[in-house]
């Protein structure tokens, strides 16, 4: 089992881990030949939020080499905090002047590889950098990991979800986050509704207070329907544009998700009426 | 004691207080005619911090009352946070014109029977003169301390001296993602080699600790240090970061460099930071890096709970971490410690007198400094050496059996002196003490017990405190500085 890669885009990697860390302490990362999957599927998650993500390795790594007995896939279990600690010393200030979150060393190269230290599997990060004055510095991090057995890996599967009723492109997550933060103190449950006309509503309704926030003119992406039901759909009457499909979610979980706004560019919300929200 | 300083000096003063409050809770003030010292020790006695402000730092400075003949400095103790909160208040920084600090002693000095008058009702009065003729007066109660803490003088012959700017060392430490929190107290292992410095986080033994998820290692060229006088390469030391970080923050804010001195892994680390008219000393205890011996485990738990130990240790090979400070009731040690900067520096660099075979003598409790006071040393040196005699007055219960014996053997006849006579002996020399370093006995290894002049490795270890029985035997005219 071998794995070695150069980390090109540390900032993105760091931000991904930052978002995940807010949801769950430990996470599963699955490295395949093409993608890196970050999975948080702990059922004990408050509000039932799960993360199943797929990241093309080209966006983060270069010189990617992986080799394993199970179809060249390696799945590891690690603590988000530890991985973040390793990445933190690499990620530069990246635009912000807040040097507390970045290192003060210019990084030349970061190499991540699977290694074994004292009978313990670790993910080793070798970072070479230069100090302010131009001298070389070498930093090594060892993140303790647990390699998952193939039997367990097979058990990992995305939850079954019905075909979503509606897809809508969410407005800037930053803005939604501001609103939802205000709503958090008022209610535990948030209703998310969207309609074909591009209207998105976030509302809470409790004994003492009722708040509705509406965004108009959200884009409804045309999703490719590959199912055979496509033909049937063509015969069905076009869905009512004003009908709102709604789902109720826990405010806290939604907020946790919104904290991943650092990584997002576009977010599509898929609402399965009264069942689930896929983002 | 009265001291006045203006708004410009307020900043370093407040920063000093902030640093002190990170070291320990209780702040001791010692005011002598030349300097004002603020010092404190942390709760586990593993770190000591001292700020010494020369009288030039203040616009007005007066200690004692010449008419009454009170020469000696004032000592008191208070909570660092109280003073800090007064001076750090948000309106203070912008409106302060000058600040007057004075210590008012409650009980009059005429009461001869009660020599502990300082302790009873001393008050620290802080008077802030602000804009618009606003005067704010704060009065804080000063407690008299029963034991004062002072570090021993380091032995400079096998010392490593490093100088580094605070920014560079901050960069190094930042690389380590350390758990933050009041309970956590991370340690780092520093290995100084010929050309490289390697810093490792203590949890590098990943297999043994299930909690540790991340191990970090940093290798950097020794050129980062402005001055790199390594005594012996490689040297490895381990110490806790909490106090070290406070020091670095202070140095960084004031823009001053750090002078780090240490000898070997079991002896404390000394950091000097010098600024305009003030000087600071930080002493942080170090421990042996784990893994060097099975007993090393004790070392890593040691620093957290280092109380005065009465039980003898039986492992001569294994060096337990040094206590940073020794409790002393003698003001002279404080005075010596707080003597004006120039004196201390020059004296610590002096060549020590040639070593002659000496009998064990009561030395400093800081046993790494093997002060071998020999009455046989030439007469010219003797009077000065006698300055270095016990930190504590003879007959105090802190003398161990060996020390008592040595004291008698030394033939100085001081064991029968009363406190006044003892003090008079020093008085003649005044405060300008030339402190000479006496080299350690080359045969001895560092002992943590207070056996004066620790000799062979198999030296018998006796309890460091003889308990009260011994002191009770001999009637002493010894008045503790502060009564309980």
Automatic annotation (TrEMBL), chain A:
Q: Which UniProt keywords apply?
A: Nucleus
Main location group: nucleus
- Which region is the signal sequence? none
Q: Does the keyword Nucleus apply?
A: yes
Q: Name one Pfam family in it.
A: Hus1
**Where does it sit, as one GO cellular component term?**
nucleolus
**Location of the protein in the cell:** Nucleus
- What biological-process GO terms show up in the record? double-strand break repair via homologous recombination; meiotic DNA integrity checkpoint signaling; mitotic DNA replication checkpoint signaling; mitotic intra-S DNA damage checkpoint signaling; nucleotide-excision repair; telomere maintenance
Name the domain of life this protein comes from. Answer: Eukaryota
Entry similarity comment: Belongs to the HUS1 family.
Q: What's the name of the protein?
A: Checkpoint protein
Q: Which organism is it from?
A: Lentinula edodes
UniProtKB/TrEMBL annotation, chain B:
Q: Where is this region: Disordered?
A: 291-373, 457-484
Q: Name one Pfam family in it.
A: Rad9
Q: Where is the composition biased (Pro residues)?
A: 351-360
UniProt feature, compositional bias: Polar residues? 340-350, 462-472
Q: Quote a single Gene Ontology cellular component term.
A: checkpoint clamp complex
**From the record, what ranges are coiled-coil?**
none
Q: Where, by residue number, does the polypeptide cross the bilayer?
A: none
One GO term under biological process is: DNA repair
Checking PANTHER family in the record gives: CELL CYCLE CHECKPOINT CONTROL PROTEIN (PTHR15237:SF0), DNA REPAIR PROTEIN RAD9 (PTHR15237)
This protein is called Cell cycle checkpoint control protein rad9a
Organism name = Lentinula edodes (Shiitake mushroom)
């Amino acid at each position: 089992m071998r794995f070695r890669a150069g980390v090109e885009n540390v900032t993105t990697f760091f931000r991904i881990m930052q978002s995940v860390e807010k949801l769950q302490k430990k996470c599963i990362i699955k490295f395949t030949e093409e993608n890196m999957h970050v999975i948080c599927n702990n059922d004990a998650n408050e509000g039932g939020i799960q993360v199943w993500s797929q990241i093309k390795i080209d966006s983060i790594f270069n010189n990617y080499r992986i080799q394993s007995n199970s179809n060249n896939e390696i799945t590891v279990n690690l603590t988000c905090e530890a991985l973040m600690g390793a990445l933190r010393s690499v990620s530069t200030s990246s635009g912000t002047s807040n040097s507390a979150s970045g290192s003060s060393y210019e990084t030349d190269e970061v190499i991540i590889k699977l290694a074994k230290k004292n009978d313990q599997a670790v993910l080793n990060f070798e970072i070479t950098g230069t100090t302010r004055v131009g001298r070389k510095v070498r930093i090594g991090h060892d993140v303790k990991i647990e390699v998952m057995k193939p039997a367990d890996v097979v058990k990992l599967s995305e939850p079954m979800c019905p075909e979503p009723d509606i897809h809508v492109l969410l407005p800037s997550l930053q803005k939604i986050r501001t609103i939802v933060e205000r709503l958090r103190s008022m209610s535990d449950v948030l209703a998310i509704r969207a309609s074909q006309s591009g209207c998105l509503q976030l509302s809470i309704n409790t004994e003492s207070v009722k708040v509705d926030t509406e965004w108009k003119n959200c884009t409804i992406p045309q999703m490719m329907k590959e199912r055979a039901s496509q033909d049937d759909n063509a015969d069905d009457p076009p869905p009512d544009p004003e009908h709102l499909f709604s789902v109720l979610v826990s405010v806290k979980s939604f907020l946790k998700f919104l904290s991943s706004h650092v990584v997002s560019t576009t977010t599509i919300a898929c609402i399965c009426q009264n069942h689930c929200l896929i983002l | 004691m009265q001291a006045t300083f203006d708004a410009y000096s307020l900043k370093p003063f407040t920063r000093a207080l902030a640093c002190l409050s990170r070291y320990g809770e209780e702040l001791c003030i010692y005011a002598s005619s030349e300097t004002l010292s603020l010092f404190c020790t942390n709760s586990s006695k593993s770190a000591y911090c001292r700020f010494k402000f020369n009288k030039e730092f203040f616009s007005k400075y007066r200690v004692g009352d010449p008419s009454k003949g009170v020469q000696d400095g004032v000592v008191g103790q208070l909570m660092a946070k109280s003073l800090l909160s007064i001076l750090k208040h948000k309106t203070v920084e912008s409106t302060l014109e000058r600040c007057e600090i004075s210590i008012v002693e409650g009980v009059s000095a005429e009461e001869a029977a009660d020599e502990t008058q300082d302790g009873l009702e001393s008050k620290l009065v802080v008077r802030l003169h602000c804009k618009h003729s606003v005067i704010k007066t704060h009065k804080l109660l000063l407690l008299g301390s029963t034991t004062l803490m002072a570090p021993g003088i380091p032995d400079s012959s096998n010392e490593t001296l490093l100088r580094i700017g605070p920014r560079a060392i901050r960069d190094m430490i930042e690389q380590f993602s350390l758990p933050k929190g009041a309970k956590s107290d991370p340690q780092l292992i520093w290995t100084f080699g010929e050309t490289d410095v390697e810093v490792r986080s203590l949890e590098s033994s990943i297999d043994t600790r299930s909690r540790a998820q991340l191990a970090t290692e940093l290798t950097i060229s020794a050129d980062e240090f402005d001055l790199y006088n390594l005594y012996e390469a490689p040297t490895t030391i381990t110490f806790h970061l909490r106090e070290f970080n406070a020091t670095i923050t202070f140095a960084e804010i004031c823009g001053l460099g750090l002078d780090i001195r240490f000898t070997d892994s079991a002896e404390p680390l000394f950091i000097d930071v010098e600024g305009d008219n003030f000087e600071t000393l930080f002493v942080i205890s170090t421990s042996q890096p784990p893994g060097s011996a099975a007993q090393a485990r004790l070392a890593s738990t040691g620093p957290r709970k280092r109380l005065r130990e009465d039980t003898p240790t039986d492992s001569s090979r294994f060096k337990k971490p040094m206590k940073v400070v020794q409790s002393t009731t003698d003001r002279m040690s404080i005075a010596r410690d707080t003597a004006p900067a120039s004196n201390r520096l020059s004296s610590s660099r002096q060549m020590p007198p040639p070593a002659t075979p000496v009998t064990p003598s009561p030395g400093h409790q800081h046993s790494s400094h093997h002060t071998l006071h020999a009455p046989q040393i030439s007469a010219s040196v003797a009077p000065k050496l006698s300055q270095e005699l016990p930190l504590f007055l003879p007959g105090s219960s802190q003398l161990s059996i060996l020390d008592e014996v040595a004291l008698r053997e030394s033939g100085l006849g001081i064991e029968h002196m009363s406190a006044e006579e003892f003090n008079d002996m020093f008085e003649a020399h005044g405060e300008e003490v030339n402190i000479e370093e006496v080299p350690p006995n080359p045969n001895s290894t560092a002992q943590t017990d207070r056996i004066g002049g620790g000799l062979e490795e198999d030296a018998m270890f006796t309890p460091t405190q003889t308990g009260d029985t011994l002191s009770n035997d001999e009637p002493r005219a010894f008045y503790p500085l502060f009564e309980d």
